[in-house]
Amino acid sequence: MKAIVIDEFGGPDVLNYREHPVPEFGDDQVLIRVKAAGVNPADWKIREGYVAQLFPHQLPLVLGWDMAGVIDSVGKNISSFKPGDEVYCFPRLPTVQHGTYAEFAPADSDMLATKPENLSFEQSATLPLVTLTAWQALVDFGELQAGQSLFVSAGAGGVGGMAIQIAKHLGARVCTTASAGNHDYLRELGADHIIDYNNENIDESVKAFQKDGVDLVFDCTGSEDVVINFNYVRKPGGRVATINGLVHTIPELEKNAELHNVTAKLVVVEPRGAQLGKLTKLFEREALRPLPVESYPLEDAGLALQKSEEGHVRGKLALIID
Ligand SMILES: NC(=O)c1ccc[n+]([C@@H]2O[C@H](COP(=O)([O-])OP(=O)(O)OC[C@H]3O[C@@H](n4cnc5c(N)ncnc54)[C@H](OP(=O)(O)O)[C@@H]3O)[C@@H](O)[C@H]2O)c1
Q1: What percent of the chain clears pLDDT 70, i.e. is strictly above it?
Q2: Is the Cβ–Cβ distance between 266 and 257 less than 8 Å?
Q3: Would 30 be classed as within a structural domain?
Q4: pLDDT at 246
Q5: Burial class for 117, CB neighbours closer than 10 Å (0-12, 13-18, 19+)
Q6: This prediction's pTM
Q7: Residue whose CA lies nearest to ligand 1 atom number 21
Q8: Which domain holds residue 67?
Q9: How many CB atoms lie within 10 A of CB 10?
Q10: Residue 48 lies in a domain
Q11: Which residue out of 189, 265, 312 has the highest number of ligand 1 atoms within 8 Å of its CB and is therefore the one to mutate?
Q12: Which of 66, 205, 220, 260 is 20 to 30 A from 308, comparing alpha carbons?
C-alpha cells in the first residue's frame, strides 16, 4: 500500500511517500481502507520524536491519528462491525506504528464509530481526535453546565472550534482568543466574546466578559498565565483543563491549583468509540457542525504538516487517500 512512513525521527526531510506492507490486525481489531486522514499537530510532534516519551513507538512508522474509511476486514472476535461499514475513528493503539496516512490502517473495534451519514469522508476524518478532546475536557472533566462560562484559547483551531460548539450546545457562554482575521469565523461558530490576543490584554478582556473569572478555562495553547498563574478562572471552585503538554509544569499545575482553590488537569484524549458514537448523533442533528477543511493528496502530507506546524490553521487539514 502507499503510505507516509518515517524511518527515524526528525524534520520534514524524514517523511517518505512509498510502498509499505499492509498492517496485520488482531482478533479484536478491524482493518480499514482509509478514504481520508485528519492532520493534527500530534503528527509532526510524532515525526520529531517529541511524544516518544509518552507512548512507545516502533520505527519505521506510518504517521496519522485520525481517519474515515470503509471496513475492509474484521478480526474473528468482531460482531459489531462488518466489511463495507463506513466508519471514522481516532485509532491510537498502544504502540505508535500503524497510522492513518496510508491506504489501510488497523483500529481496535472499541475505538470505532459509524461515520455521520450527513458528512463526507473528508469532513469526518478531521473530527474524531478534536471532538473527543473537547468533549473530554469540557464535559467529562469540566462538567460544564447551561448558564456557566467558558474561556477557551485558540478558538480558530481544531480543538477550539469544537469546544466553542460543544459549549454553546450545552448552553454555556463562551469567550475565546484568535488573531483579528478569525473573529468573523468565530462569531459564526457561536463565540460570545472574542479577544484579539495580539492587541488586547487577555486578563482584562476575560474579566470584562465575566467579572469574577469564568467557571471553566480550557487551555489549547500552553499558556503559563493559565497553568501557573491561574488567571481567568473563577476562584474558588473553578476548573482548568489544559491539553498542551507543558509536561514540566504538571507538578506546578497541581500545586498551584490547590493553592488557588481550583481544580486543574492535563487532559490527554482517550480514543473512545462509544463516546464518538454519541457525538455522531450530534453531527447528524446538526447540533455540531464540521469545521472548514483544507485538503491535500496523500503524497503532499509534507505540505499539510508544514501548514500545521506554522500554527495558524483555521479549522482542519485533511489528506485525501482514495
Ligand atoms: N492533550 C491532548 O490530548 C491533545 C489533544 C488534541 C490537541 N492537543 C494539542 O493542543 C494544541 C491545539 O490543537 P489543535 O488541533 O486545536 O491545533 P491547531 O488546529 O493547529 O490550532 C491552530 C490555531 O491556533 C491558533 N493560535 C495560534 N497561536 C495562538 C495564540 N497565541 N493564541 C490563540 N490562538 C492561537 C491559530 O489561530 P490564529 O491564526 O488566529 O492565531 C489557529 O487557528 C496542539 O498543541 C495539540 O498538539 C493535545
Answers
A1: 99
A2: no
A3: yes
A4: 62
A5: exposed
A6: 0.98
A7: 157
A8: 2-127+290-320
A9: 12
A10: yes
A11: 312
A12: 205
Q: Above 80 in pLDDT, residue 293?
A: yes
Query: Is residue 199 very low, low, confident or very high in pLDDT (cuts 50, 70, 90)?
Result: very high
Asked if 26 and 79 sit in the same domain, the reply is yes
pLDDT score of 248: 55
pLDDT at residue 244, rounded to an integer: 86
Total domains in the chain come to 2
Mean pLDDT, residues 16-43: 98
Residues 144 and 186 in one domain: yes
Assess if residue 275 is contained within a domain.
Answer: no
Q: Are residues 113 and 136 in the same domain?
A: no
Question: What residues does ligand 1 touch, defined as CB less than 6 Å away?
Answer: 40-42, 129-130, 133, 153-154, 156-160, 177-179, 182, 197, 220-221, 243-244, 267-269, 308, 311-314
pLDDT at 249: 65
Report the DSSP pairing between strands 149-152 and 67-74: unpaired
Q: What is the pLDDT of residue 94?
A: 96
Is residue 257 located within the same domain as residue 151?
yes
What CATH number does the domain containing 242 carry? Answer: 3.40.50.720
Do 40 and 105 belong together in one domain?
Answer: yes
Mean model confidence pLDDT for the chain: 96
Q: What atom in ligand 1 is closest to the CA of residue 130?
A: 6
Question: Which CATH number goes with the domain that contains 45?
Answer: 3.90.180.10
Q: Rounded to the nearest 5 degrees, what angle is found at the Cα of 150, between the Cα atoms of 38 and 67?
A: 10
